């Protein structure tokens, strides 16, 4: 029985005959530091959350939508009119809802004359910081008539409610598109323009849109500009805060006086509201799920490190000898025997 108690099917080297290497301890310290780094990163991800984007069918029923605009046109205000027409056949003269102010037409610095802004989904935190609602005011101070300054332009700004169906907003010259008691002289026709603001829905002046800061210079009086926009409702949600905006993409066509197949001379902004909706929100996993995930990741890293360490040790021992072992080092303190 005593011999049975001491029987070992897998004999091991006695501890007094083994001298552990300091290389293994250094490797363990490196692994522990790496595990702490992973744990710190995971805790940061847990508290910081992650951004989840979803595309869903827009089930919110709205009969109207709002168009916000601030456009410079190189024509006196008294010759301009703004209309809105949609696929239901509804035609609105929306000039009365907008503000017109005579200005000296100019192209602000940084205006894009040959391209548009990139269509991107802004960062969630940036949107929440910039989503400060505002509205256009109608009591803007009148500009004094300064001698020598030619007020050859018009600033059209304000918000217009329209039916939430496909339609178009037109800026045209009086008497050239619809019946009017006054016909604009041919000599003043000039639809050079700068779009400072064009957005849909609630007005957030600090959020950049695709057509913001875009301008065009007309090289002939009967010039027609067409902007075709596709509007996509977008909701941003984070920690109870919620902001609803509308992104849009745009295509553009310019027509000269020799071709008017698409419509009247002027500036036409066509809009189409998409049936989809984008929801961008900040999400966090549950605490239990986080703990399970953290333990699984750390365990897997330890397992891989152990395999890599053993494989490296085995390779060094077989190629370079036992003195290169990462796990043990031979005892060189013993003295050689007589026959050695």
From TrEMBL:
Tree of life domain: Eukaryota
Subcellular location: Endoplasmic reticulum membrane; Endoplasmic reticulum-Golgi intermediate compartment membrane; Golgi apparatus membrane; Membrane
Principal localisation: endoplasmic reticulum
Domain Endoplasmic reticulum vesicle transporter N-terminal stretches: 4-92
Organism, scientific name: Eremothecium cymbalariae (strain CBS 270.75 / DBVPG 7215 / KCTC 17166 / NRRL Y-17582)
Gene Ontology molecular functions: identical protein binding
GO cellular component terms attached to this protein's record: COPII-coated ER to Golgi transport vesicle; endoplasmic reticulum membrane; endoplasmic reticulum-Golgi intermediate compartment membrane; Golgi membrane; retrograde transporter complex, Golgi to ER
Membrane disposition: Multi-pass membrane protein
Keyword Ribonucleoprotein listed: no
The name this protein goes by in its record: Endoplasmic reticulum-Golgi intermediate compartment protein
UniProt keyword terms in alphabetical order: Endoplasmic reticulum, ER-Golgi transport, Golgi apparatus, Membrane, Transmembrane, Transmembrane helix, Transport
Function text: Plays a role in transport between endoplasmic reticulum and Golgi.
InterPro entries: Erv, Erv_C, Erv_N
GO biological process: endoplasmic reticulum to Golgi vesicle-mediated transport; retrograde vesicle-mediated transport, Golgi to endoplasmic reticulum
Sequence intervals crossing the membrane: 29-47, 290-311
């Amino acid at each position: 029985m005593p011999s049975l108690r001491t029987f070992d099917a897998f004999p091991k080297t006695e501890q007094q005959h083994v001298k552990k290497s300091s290389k293994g301890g250094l490797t363990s310290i490196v692994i522990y530091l790496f595990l702490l780094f992973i744990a710190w990163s995971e805790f940061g991800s847990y508290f910081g959350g992650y951004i989840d984007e979803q595309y869903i069918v827009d089930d919110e029923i709205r009969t109207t939508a709002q168009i916000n605009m601030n456009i410079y046109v190189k024509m006196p205000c008294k010759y301009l009119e703004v209309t809105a027409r949609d696929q239901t056949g509804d035609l609105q003269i929306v000039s009365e809802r907008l503000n017109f102010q005579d200005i000296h037409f100019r192209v602000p610095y940084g205006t894009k004359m040959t391209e548009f802004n990139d269509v991107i989904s802004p960062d969630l935190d940036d949107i929440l910081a910039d989503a400060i609602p505002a509205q256009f005011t109608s009591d803007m101070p009148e500009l004094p008539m300064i001698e020598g300054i030619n007020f050859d332009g018009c600033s059209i700004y304000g918000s217009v409610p329209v039916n939430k169906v496909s339609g178009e907003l037109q800026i045209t010259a009086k008497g050239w598109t619809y019946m009017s008691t006054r016909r604009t002289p041919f000599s003043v026709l000039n639809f050079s323009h700068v779009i400072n603001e064009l957005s849909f829905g609630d007005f957030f002046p600090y959020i950049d849109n695709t057509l913001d800061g875009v301008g065009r210079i007309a090289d002939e009086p009967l010039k027609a500009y067409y902007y075709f926009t596709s509007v996509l409702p977008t909701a941003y949600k984070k920690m109870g805060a919620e902001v609803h905006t509308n992104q849009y993409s745009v295509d553009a066509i310019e027509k000269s006086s020799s071709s008017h197949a698409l419509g009247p001379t002027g500036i036409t902004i066509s809009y189409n509201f998409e049936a989809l909706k984008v929801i961008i929100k900040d999400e966090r996993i549950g605490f239990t799920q986080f703990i399970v995930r953290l333990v699984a990741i750390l365990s897997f890293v330890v397992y891989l490190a152990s395999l890599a360490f053993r494989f490296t040790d085995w390779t060094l021992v077989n190629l370079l000898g036992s003195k290169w072992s990462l796990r043990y080092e031979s005892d060189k303190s013993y003295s050689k025997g007589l026959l050695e």
